[in-house]
Amino acid sequence: MPAELTFAAPRRAQPPRHLADLSPDDRRAAVTELGEKPFRAKQLAQHYFGHLESDTSAMTDLPEGSRERLGAELLPELLTPVRHVTCDEGMTRKTLWRAFDGVMFESVLMRYPDRATLCVSSQAGCGMNCPFCATGQNGLTRNLSTGEIVDQVVSVARDLERGEVSGGPGRISNIVFMGMGEPLANYRRVLDSIRRMTDPVPGGMGISQRGVTVSTVGLVPAIEKMIAERMQVRLAISLHAPDDELRDELVPVNNRWKVAEALDAAWRYADTTGRRVSIEYALIRDINDQAWRADLLGEMLAGHLAHVNLIPLNPTPGSKWTASRPEDEREFVRRLQSHGVPVTIRDTRGQEIDGACGQLAASERE
């Protein structure tokens, strides 16, 4: 990754090597180094990605004498669920995970009649310093490994398949990188994790790339790298202000890449992939919810392959930032629509379970 994309986390011990960290070729090499036949790698991957099984003692097609070693070397336990909290009659479930080194991060499963969406974390904490964000207030601890990102998905998918989540057995259809962290500041591991999620079984989990959304505050060089990947994932830009003066305050990375630069990169992504870009905009009372800002945003987006996702702010304890008044929210929507810009208001799920990412981890540390 170019030097300008380096957002350094403190140097820490690395998570143990996991099957999900490895490409298919690397998996074959790894099992060969352990004295096993190369095809054992495909068997392990079939179990983990296809059957959502991490316990090698249950993999009866592996030699009994090899199961424990293969498990220890290639399917170590990466994540321990500290607790699950639910709301919406169990259809929204947040999980607090503890990694091997004690760091904690979160994922959120949201079930709907026609889909199941999992919001995953890509970092423990975040270094972007957005002042209204619970995760940003805690700073960056470290990047998550590819395996730690993927294992969030596999673990929740296993619970869903086994009917351990309200609503009965099901499957994950959508993945959104909108949990803790800035995904594009952990670029290579995030892209590798997307491949593990979307490559066909046994290479990966077989989830459609079109069901994956990657959110970023606007790291322009990384967006350019994503364009070159020619993937079909959706790009979401966490904009939160249409003018540089306010966005410099709300999204400090704007001091490096301005609104126009971030949007220009987004339009190049849309032109290359044919995928509509999502513009994420957290409405904050008397800060960024003025009608003139809605007009400015509408003028910027009109005619582009874009959709605005308005997010009623979920306030964090002790914060001065709070959600917009209903009448201001309605006027903001009306102004955007008057410019021909599609707009929706995000479902405000999870507020009663510390829904904003970072709140649950913060409360556990207190």
What are the salient characteristics of this protein?
alpha/beta; DNA polymerase, domain 1; rSAM; 35% helix; disulfide bond; TIM Barrel; iron-sulfur; cytoplasm; disordered C terminus
Explain what the structure shows:
- The chain has 366 residues and is α/β, with parallel strands linked by helices.
- The chain folds into two domains: 19-74, DNA polymerase, domain 1 (Orthogonal Bundle), CATH 1.10.150; 80-365, TIM Barrel.
- Helix content is 35%, strand content 18%.
- The chain contains twelve helices and twelve strands.
- The strands form two sheets. Strands 1-2-3-4-7-8-9-10-11-12 form a ten-stranded mixed β-sheet, covered by helices on one side. A two-stranded antiparallel sheet has the order 5-6.
- Strand 2 (92-98) and strand 3 form a beta hairpin.
- The protein is elongated.
- The model is unreliable at 362-366 (pLDDT under 50).
